Amino acid sequence: PEALRDLSVSLDNAARVAQAAGDWAAAGALYDESLRLSRDLAERLGTPEALRDLSVSLNNAARVAQAAGDWAAAGALYDESLRLSRDLAERLATPEALRDLSVSLNNAARVAAHEGNPQVALDLVNQGLVVLQRVLTVASTGLNQATLQALQDTANAVAAAAPSPE
User: Fold this and answer.
1) 3-state SS of the chain?
2) Which of 87, 94, 100, 163 suits 22 as a labelling partner, its CA being 20 to 30 A distant?
3) Radius of gyration of the chain (CA)
4) CA 119 to the chain's CA centroid
5) What span, in angstroms and rounded, lies between the C-alpha atoms of 28 and 44?
6) So what's the pLDDT on residue 158?
């Protein structure tokens, strides 16, 4: 299992290089292979580390789908990652697990906003802010006021785009 995890991480690293070079097709193929390995390891091991790796792989694959304009696929992948992140945050309550949950909430919010659901997006962003505030009270993790402000700015932008209730 350790060698498979190492391979999955290496595939992710190669995908990041391809993505940075603008080769989204190669990045997608590499992320998909990493996702396949991560799924296998999560099913076989079921450890928090394996489940977190799967969540990260789902986010990576979703980002490629989103870049390709396939918001349905991105949404499904982000939703699966969000379920895993919620579970890990509840079980572990570590700063890392909580931060991962805030990232997943923000990703799901982006999809909701794109799909024309600004209130859902705003609710998800606000949940993410609550989680980040909890992270800051649990331990210092390198998150700073700028991170919180960026999420608040996202929430404000979504709120501004929402139709006024009448």
Assistant:
1) CHHHHHHHHHHHHHHHHHHHCCCHHHHHHHHHHHHHHHHHHHHHHCCHHHHHHHHHHHHHHHHHHHHCCCHHHHHHHHHHHHHHHHHHHHHHCCHHHHHHHHHHHHHHHHHHHHCCCHHHHHHHHHHHHHHHHHHHHHCCCCCCHHHHHHHHHHHHHHHHHCCCCC
2) 100
3) 16
4) 20
5) 24
6) 74
Q: And the tokens for 5?
A: 């995890």
pLDDT per position as a tens digit, 84-106: 999 999 999 888 999 999 999 99
Kindly tell me if the per-residue pLDDT of 65 is higher than 70.
Answer: yes
The two three-digit tokens of residue 41, written as one number: 């390891």
- pLDDT for the residue 141: 46
Contact between residue 64 and residue 44 where contact means Cβ atoms under 8 Å apart: no
Joined tokens for residue 152: 């608040």
Q: Give φ, ψ of 90 to 5 degrees.
A: -65, -45
End-to-end CA distance of the chain: 56
| Cα gap 32→13, rounded to integer Å | 13
